[in-house]
Design goal:
Elements lengths: L1 H11 L18 H10 L7 H9 L9 H15 L6 H12 L4 H12 L1 H11 L9 H11 L6 H18 L2 E2 L5 E2 L6 H13 L11 H4 L5 H13 L4 E5 L2 E5 L6 H10 L1
Antiparallel strand pairs: 1-2, 3-4
């Protein structure tokens, strides 16, 4: 456990989060708000303070009160960091403009790396066959089974609703009331982001294409390779594949300082 804690601490320098709380007790992954915010604050190198000003002063998300704006900013920071000094958010912004179709999965991957409740429910939701119904009650039972009695019945219900909504926003579920498992739509950008998250977590070679992050893509192995090759042709990542040997690098995204941290980590 101590080794895992050290590993997690190192990943926190890159923007991962292992806090016990999580936004999903109060909100969903807030895809609409993230889209509006990143459209309003257009500069990729904008500082965290610029996002605060956009929400608080310019009220770019149209919130009614100062308190709601403050809370919204806090939730979005918890989910996405909103800090270009952190690799996870910097990479999200890099792919966000370049791959508009990939935005739902890009947001979900970022939130997955930062929100413990979304992360905890991933194996459960992704384990359903396409076409299966995923009920709120099933999510409630799953969450409660992780830490029995941690949440009150009311919190459990709203958390399960929020989690279901996030998986719907990401493209893994469909339907307003009755949620049905469907296939998310992977894109070159979302595949690249998933590979990056796996890479900084310590994975290399073919295991990068079979990680918890690439599992979020609902994408068969060969299709994942195809999309990664497409991203490589666009110059977003660098992919070399000779037979079973795969090498993926991220020269546009990982700074020299971060590479130093990764070398220490490994």
């Amino acid at each position: 456990m101590a080794v895992e804690n050290i590993h997690n601490k190192k990943l926190e320098r890159l923007g991962f989060s292992y806090e016990r709380g999580g936004v999903h007790t109060a909100r969903t992954m807030m895809l609409a708000e993230l889209r509006a915010l990143l459209s309003f604050v257009d500069a990729a190198d904008a500082a965290k303070a610029d996002y605060l000003e956009a929400i608080q002063t310019a009220n770019c998300l149209g919130k009614r009160s100062g308190k709601t704006r403050t809370l919204t900013f806090r939730h979005l920071v918890d989910l996405y960091a909103l800090d270009p000094r952190l690799l996870v958010f910097r990479a999200l912004r890099f792919f966000w403009k370049r791959d508009v179709d990939g935005q739902p999965l890009l947001a979900a991957l970022c939130a997955y790396s930062r929100d413990p409740l979304l992360r905890a429910t991933a194996p459960f939701v992704l384990g359903f066959q396409e076409g299966a119904t995923v009920t709120r009650e099933a999510i409630e039972e799953f969450i409660d089974a992780q830490e029995p009695g941690r949440f009150s019945k009311a919190t459990l219900k709203s958390t399960a609703q929020n989690i279901n909504s996030s998986w719907t926003q990401a493209g893994h579920l469909v339907g307003r009331v009755r949620k049905v498992r469907t296939c998310a739509v992977a894109t070159p950008g979302s595949v690249s982001f998933a590979l990056l998250l796996g890479y900084v977590s310590g994975l290399r070679g073919e295991s990068l294409l079979k990680s918890d992050f690439t599992r979020m893509l609902d994408c068969p192995f060969e299709k994942t390779i195809e999309l990664a090759e497409d991203a490589s042709r666009r110059g977003w990542i660098s992919l070399k594949r000779v037979g079973q040997v795969v090498e993926v690098l991220f020269p546009n995204l990982i700074t020299a300082q971060e590479m130093e941290w990764l070398r220490e980590q490994n």
